[in-house]
């Protein structure tokens, strides 16, 4: 399917009881912070997400690049169905196999440490196999970080680079958010529902494409020209407003009340 023109994207419809909701986390539910550890959910978000999960019969999942244990920390005491590490970790479906961390990964990690010493503010996030290199606090280092990752990826058999917002990540080649959605959609309580995927970044395009292919809806947070998302919400505040409105009866779906 061709990318959708930004001018043509509108607000997503009200969810109904037949939907399954897949939510990216950073940049979708959480505003970005200088480092990944400094994020927090806005006040009042947790009760809304809890209520919406109940209304959808439990078919609400987080789909994130963060590991599951971090998602559980941010969303505590909730333990939602979730895909962590872009789907390498799955709660609610069998996990996808990942390539074993290799000597080449150690070499990349060591090179990244040297680069971070030269460019203070570059953050190396070690996710146990996967590595994410962030430059939100050192924007001028972005080209160097990307070049370093590109120079090493050829030695990392079974891995690919996942670019994102001020980050590049080394992830298993057979893992992405679209496959995570497909895996969860094969399981109860997701199976048979209409998938709705909400995300902001390039890695979410896999989720958008998977949701579209299953007859669902895709929602881009923020604005980007080269996206396959059908619908649009301008920022994280608009996402939380939309989620809250979806805990209230919609104009046409009385059964959902
Ligand atoms: Mg995101």
UniProtKB/TrEMBL annotation:
<keyword id="KW-0479">Metal-binding</keyword>
<dbReference type="InterPro" id="IPR003337">
    <property type="entry name" value="Trehalose_PPase"/>
</dbReference>
<dbReference type="GO" id="GO:0004805">
    <property type="term" value="F:trehalose-phosphatase activity"/>
</dbReference>
<dbReference type="InterPro" id="IPR023214">
    <property type="entry name" value="HAD_sf"/>
</dbReference>
<dbReference type="InterPro" id="IPR044651">
    <property type="entry name" value="OTSB-like"/>
</dbReference>
<protein>
    <recommendedName>
        <fullName>Trehalose 6-phosphate phosphatase</fullName>
        <ecNumber>3.1.3.12</ecNumber>
    </recommendedName>
</protein>
<keyword id="KW-0378">Hydrolase</keyword>
<dbReference type="InterPro" id="IPR036412">
    <property type="entry name" value="HAD-like_sf"/>
</dbReference>
<comment type="similarity">
    <text>Belongs to the trehalose phosphatase family.</text>
</comment>
<dbReference type="InterPro" id="IPR006379">
    <property type="entry name" value="HAD-SF_hydro_IIB"/>
</dbReference>
<comment type="pathway">
    <text>Glycan biosynthesis; trehalose biosynthesis.</text>
</comment>
<comment type="function">
    <text>Removes the phosphate from trehalose 6-phosphate to produce free trehalose.</text>
</comment>
<dbReference type="Pfam" id="PF02358">
    <property type="entry name" value="Trehalose_PPase"/>
</dbReference>
<keyword id="KW-0460">Magnesium</keyword>
<dbReference type="GO" id="GO:0005992">
    <property type="term" value="P:trehalose biosynthetic process"/>
</dbReference>
<dbReference type="GO" id="GO:0000287">
    <property type="term" value="F:magnesium ion binding"/>
</dbReference>
């Amino acid at each position: 399917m061709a990318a959708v023109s930004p001018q043509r994207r509108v607000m997503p419809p009200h969810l109904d009881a037949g939907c399954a909701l897949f939510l990216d986390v950073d940049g979708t539910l959480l505003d970005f912070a200088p480092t990944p550890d400094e994020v927090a959910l806005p006040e009042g978000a947790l009760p809304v997400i809890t209520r919406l999960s109940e209304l959808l019969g439990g078919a609400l999942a987080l789909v994130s690049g963060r590991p599951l244990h971090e998602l559980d920390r941010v969303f505590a005491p909730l333990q939602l169905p979730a895909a962590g590490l872009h789907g390498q970790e799955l709660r609610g479906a069998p996990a996808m196999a990942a390539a074993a961390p290799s000597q080449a990964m150690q070499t990349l990690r060591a090179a990244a440490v040297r680069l971070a010493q030269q460019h203070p503010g570059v953050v190396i996030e070690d996710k146990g196999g996967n590595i994410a290199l962030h430059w939100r606090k050192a924007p001028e280092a972005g080209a160097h970080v990307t070049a370093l990752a590109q120079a090493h990826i050829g030695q990392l058999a079974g891995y690919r680079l996942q670019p994102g917002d001020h980050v590049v990540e080394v992830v298993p080649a057979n893992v992405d958010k679209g496959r995570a959605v497909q895996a969860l959609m094969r399981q109860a309580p997701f199976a048979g529902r209409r998938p709705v995927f909400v995300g902001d970044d390039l890695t979410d395009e896999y989720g958008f494409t998977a949701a579209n292919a299953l007859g669902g809806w895709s929602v881009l947070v923020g604005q980007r020209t080269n996206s396959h998302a059908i619908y649009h919400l301008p920022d994280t505040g608009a996402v939380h407003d939309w989620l809250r409105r979806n805990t209230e009866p919609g104009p046409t779906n009385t059964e959902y009340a």
